[in-house]
């Protein structure tokens, strides 16, 4: 399983409290009642295996084991087998309250999960040969009443079923696991797309509709399941639990074997457990690779066979807000039916409107972030643009000139759209999806061709917004009748009219109440909160202005008249438009009618029926799929010509637009001899900058590899005030002052005129001039030689200007170099730049010979110490403070530990970094760790720095910054063959899976656990040291420089 770092995985449970309501949170339907079994199962008996591994909490067994017996169900017999495959000593006296039917079996050697289960199943068949069923239950699970009778009942009622899995709940009552399905995911370890099992309902309420019925599933996790004893025997004979796949994938393997044999796998709502585990176990990537080798081709074939068509669909959406939420709803039932990917510009921590999605079930949000990470290597046949219309030019590829079929998914709440918007819909996109007939009519009146307009309504999940699965809030001062209104106090909201009408309607009544909460305004052109209320069985008071006219009906609504009113607003995009102003008198009348009505329950029932029949997510998703299928059959059959997109309308700085719209001259390939003349534009020493260090190291090894007679000239990027301050020899006249446009022009002319064959541009936001560094695009477009752009950092928080710059730089380059497959995928999947011209050349590293750490320690006066190390320029995002917080518990168990902090405060950071460094020094004076921390702050040359790295036993990267795509210190540690403990920032997550210990962000406890895991297990430390060094073979600077030399030769060669 790939855990997405951008999602707050520790907060995956459903947070139910609406913001700022002065009351208790709503709760799920209060009774976790057991289902009434249609028939009491016969012969309800099972051998129940409870695997005990190294991470098992033995004390928890005192509760789990008796509970398995006590809550099995009426007349059900349980024989518990504790399968002890760990180094822990377990005996029945440690499991208080256990019946005599508890036995302990222990293999002669320590076993991992799969082998432990296989051993336990074999022993169960021997020890309890007459028992009809065998179950496996994880040691962290607490059963609810009837857990065994529910499994046996479903198994007996479905004759073709071989295995039945239980529903697993989080401690707050939301679903943790209820079956898996196979979907495409991007695997960092394998650096490609694969088909893997994903949980379908994590985070949904325990009584969410689809999880309340027995369901045939493709796979499931291994938490709790039951089989007939005869079926277990066949499974083992067929090789079940023999691949060392771990607890997550082993049961997917089992399910696939059963499906292969024509059998069914079920998940049952009749059997439930609460999982008390507080941490998710990270799967070993090697097991993922084994699973892929075993099942990958057949799963891929199965996936392809389930597609409605082969075209690739890209859905461009926001990561939050109403539009993001609606896009999420639409794709809920499309995944797996088409080659779909989501293009979301900003990641979860930087989401435009995270409040909208952070309270939704984990599976709901995770689906889109999984689709976001899918490979962008395939060109988009269809692009659905579900964002602000002014951002359209940022997404289809190449920028401003796309042959993809473009669909605009738009909504608005005024009587007309901006003229630029209407022109875009007429001229730039192929068709428009709008949520209502009212929107369609509005577009036709503004000259948009009727054949371009399709009505695709917004939708809600009627299973989630179901009044039968929620207990109502107990509201303060609640009276006979309660009204709820939601709005935002801005120009678009009619909150004054609501408050005035309510106060006038009920000035003499004391048995009504009005509760005021956040969102709808006059409405967003559709009124999603109305539809959510309708789905929850509530009648509504509403106008029929805008899209509401499509679905608001008098059998469940009190209708309010409106008058068209000119908009008075500072928003230039709304000038000249009008919207519907509700009648206060009709609002008063509607309040009174609702107060007097005896039919509110029936009206609410009608409202919910309307949603279920027409606007449920599944229904609307089928309409979307139907239309997309029509497009692939009729519109994509022939060659499509590219169309220009108007970038000038977009809300980005003018110089970004100007640079992007500059024409690119014809690229000259004028090399007639093997010799190459290469221009390199980069920061350079003495400027203290990581890019300068990288570029100097690269050129040191690149120049000797170029053909005889070749030359390389560096044009350094400098600050405008830097040139007079340079010491030593006279500064070059070929430097580019960062904000001096004339320097870019003169340098480009020189490169074009002086026989250069290629130019390498080192790119990092912050070192190039112009708004957001836009002048790199101007410069690249001025060059008449092939351009190689090297992308160093790829943030997950790019604004619109940065997005355009990256896309136009890539389009203006002959080749784009990134330093990992993960970054290559991210460039396309997150930022809309496919991989046509993207090349992966890893970050180089010096050759570091394998040295016994004891020898290096002796040279540095560290003999006898277990050395932990962090190095680099120190700043608050480095996370060193977290290690100091974790250190007391570590040195208590391992008193010879010494933590080396090698580095000085970052010079570009100034006072904040100096203050942070002082705080570290103060924290290190704690009496518990004062003799276990050493600062090395003097400047170290490469030779001495390498000695310190070689002396380290464990290298620690506790970074707080999630979006570090390339870390030179991590590369050096890998090359030195160090065991590494790191937070999962981008670079670490991509390379350390299976080669190091990944710990949670901002968690001293997680860091402590990760470091102790290595200190306690020398064999694991040795394994990671070996795999780190093996992974970096071929990443030395000379090998990387060969890749650049080959790339330069290829792009300058005449065809």
From TrEMBL:
Transmembrane segments: none annotated. InterPro entries: Nucleotide-diphossugar_trans. CDD domains: GT4_mannosyltransferase-like. Pfam families: Glyco_trans_1_4. It comes from the Eukaryota. Gene3D superfamilies: Glycogen Phosphorylase B (3.40.50.2000). Coiled coil: none annotated. This is Glycosyltransferase. It comes from Volvox reticuliferus.
